[in-house]
Amino acid sequence: MQKFTYRAPRYAVDLPIELTTEASTLRGRCKEISKDGMRVELGEPLPPDFDGTASLTYLNIALRLRVALAHTGAERDGVKFIFESQKERADVARLVAVLAARTQTPGPRLVE
After folding, report:
1. Residue 5 falls within a domain, yes or no?
2. Could you tell me if residue 112 is inside a domain?
3. By residue range, what is the domain housing residue 95?
4. What separation in angstroms does the CA of 50 have from each of 11, 40, 59, 60?
5. How many separate domains does the chain show?
6. For residue 56, what is the domain's CATH number?
7. On the chain, which terminus has fewer CB atoms closer than 10 Å, C or N?
């Protein structure tokens, strides 16, 4: 029997982001987000062993949490969230809910 894994809904956004490691800070754009991770657009691809911290703010919601590389592409990389607490998981869920609710209002363009 084949097991199906369904991914969480993703929302297209265009938000500034910082990815930080011990050695450097990269600035770019978060182009897509879900409860599990996000797709980011940076000036250069992330290294295959990337593990760092993502900082992202939207309205009054500020996130700062660990991320690791999930996949890399020519123009965009995907990072997955590494939750260290239920509060972090709830904060991401809150941000995604706010972004999902704003699909019908002016502001960032969101697409599920």
Report:
1. no
2. no
3. 11-104
4. 23, 13, 28, 28
5. 1
6. 2.40.10.220
7. N
CA atoms of 13 and 108, how far apart (whole Å): 6
d(CA 82, CA 13): 21
**CA 29, chain centre distance (Å):** 10
In this predicted model, what pLDDT tens digit does every residue of 59-98 receive, in sequence order? 989 999 999 999 888 778 999 999 999 999 999 999 999 9
**What was the pLDDT predicted at 56?**
94
Model pTM score: 0.81
Asked if residue 20 belongs to a domain, the reply is yes
Classify residue 3: in a domain, yes or no.
Answer: no
Q: Of 3-12, 24-33, 97-106, where does the model show the most confidence?
A: 24-33
Are the CB atoms for 19 and 54 separated by under 8 Å?
A: yes
